[in-house]
Structure formats: C-alpha cells, structure tokens
C-alpha cells in the first residue's frame, strides 16, 4: 500500500516541503499519494502504510483544515505510522524563547485534536515576500529586521534545512518498513 502525504499551506511553502518529502519517499521505493487536506476526495488514511502530514504555523496556530482532519481521522491515523512536519519561521529564530514556542505547537495541536504523531520534525519555513500584500510584507520585513534576517522584499527567502528534512523522511520510511514486518 502507498504512503499518504497530506499538507495544508497558506503561501505554498508547506506544499513544497510535502512534495519534496513525497519525492524522497518515492526515491526510497515507496508509492506515494500527495494531497491538500483542504481538498475533498482524497483517500481514507486507514488504507495506507503510513501518513506524513505537513502544516504551517500562521498567527500562532495550524490551519483549521488540518485541525479538522486530525479530529475526524484520529483513529485511522493512530493505526499506522504517522509523522508531522511542523513548518514555522520561529524554529529558525536566534531567540531561544521563540524556538521553544515553535517546538511547543505540536503539543498544542495534540491537546486540541487528541492526535499525537509518532514523529515530529520542525522545519523552518520561508519569507514569501512576493506572496504578501503590502502590509504583510512590511510587517514581515520588520519582524525579519528584528531577527537580523533578510530585508530584501523583492524576493522570497527560504530557511528550510533540506538535508535535515531528508534524514527525517528516511526515519519515516524506516518506521513504515518496520511496521510492515510486524
């Protein structure tokens, strides 16, 4: 059976991360189905060897569609190896308190949904200046300036550690292989 990779995205970077992870899983020999959790019609999680979820943090929370999905499919998700890639710029911060806050978002999600993934990876997102409206662009530039980050609003800036993501995907593939033997 294939692996289901589901994502929620606001500006597209979580989709890019999910698609990258799906490509890695395929390179490792797995069949993969990728879908946006907001779109109707994707398959039931219980029909997969494993599920990888990818969701961003915006305004201090995960997208409502991901929260609803986790509530609705909690039991099916717990029946297979399931992992979460939590995407937030806060994990890239030099400020220890901001990183700790970013690391705490999955626990808040668990309290809200009752679902706990077997593995969690914290991925730094991107400043999508080209996607933002004027006001958000200026706000994000100001936040970036306070962090010593990029100020060039004429392009996007990615902070994702792709090698760390690849290592996490390998761990997921190993978990699924072990579950298949049990």
TrEMBL record:
Flavodoxin domain: which residues? Answer: 4-152
Superkingdom classification of source? Bacteria
Please name the Gene3D superfamilies in this protein's record. Answer: 3.40.50.360
InterPro entries according to UniProt: Flavodoxin_dom (IPR026816), Flavoprotein-like_sf (IPR029039), Protoporphyrinogen_IX_DH (IPR052200)
Matching Pfam families: Flavodoxin_5 (PF12724)
PANTHER family from the entry? PROTOPORPHYRINOGEN IX DEHYDROGENASE [MENAQUINONE], PROTOPORPHYRINOGEN IX DEHYDROGENASE [QUINONE]
Protein name, per record = Protoporphyrinogen oxidase
């Amino acid at each position: 059976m294939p692996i289901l990779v589901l994502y929620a995205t606001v500006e597209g970077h979580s989709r890019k991360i999910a698609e990258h992870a799906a490509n890695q899983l395929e390179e490792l020999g797995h069949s993969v189905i990728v879908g946006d959790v907001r779109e109707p019609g994707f398959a039931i999680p219980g029909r997969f060897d494993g599920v990888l979820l990818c969701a961003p943090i915006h305004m201090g929370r995960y997208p409502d569609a991901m929260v609803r999905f986790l509530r609705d499919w909690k039991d099916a998700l717990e029946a297979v190896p399931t992992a979460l890639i939590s995407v937030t710029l806060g994990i890239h911060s030099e400020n220890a308190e901001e990183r700790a806050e970013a690391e705490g978002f999955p626990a808040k999600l668990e309290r809200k949904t009752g679902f706990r993934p077997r593995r969690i990876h914290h991925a730094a997102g991107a400043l999508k200046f080209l996607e933002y409206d004027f006001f958000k662009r200026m706000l994000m530039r100001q936040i970036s300036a306070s962090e010593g980050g990029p100020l060039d609003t004429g392009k996007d800036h990615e902070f994702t550690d792709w090698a760390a993501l690849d290592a996490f995907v390998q761990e997921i593939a190993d978990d699924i292989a072990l579950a298949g033997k049990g």
